[in-house]
Amino acid sequence: MDERTKMLISLGAATAANCIPCFEYLFEKSREVNLTDEEIQEAVDIAGKVKNGAQIAMKNFIGDIMGDSRQHQHPCEEASSSSCCG
């Protein structure tokens, strides 16, 4: 795997983990592999969508154990380009 791809994955992971110090460090290092702001933003956006999906899954789980029949649709179940999977 090339260094640019590794860096994009790392930035996404830092975003999903809410690790500000990690993101700050990686953001500075990303300049060494010539990532553009647009590439970084895309990785951050994807991480946010995946994280949102995990939050929805947790809300559904909590609703299930509390007897709430409402279910929130997971973004990966949507057939659109705005879902976390495509």
Automatic annotation (TrEMBL):
Residues 2-47 form the Carboxymuconolactone decarboxylase-like domain. One of its GO terms (molecular function) is peroxiredoxin activity. Pfam families: CMD. InterPro entries: AhpD-like, CMD-like. Gene3D superfamilies: AhpD-like. It comes from the Bacteria. SUPFAM superfamilies: AhpD-like (SSF69118). This is Carboxymuconolactone decarboxylase family protein. The lineage of its organism: Bacteria, Pseudomonadati, Thermodesulfobacteriota, Desulfobacteria, Desulfobacterales.
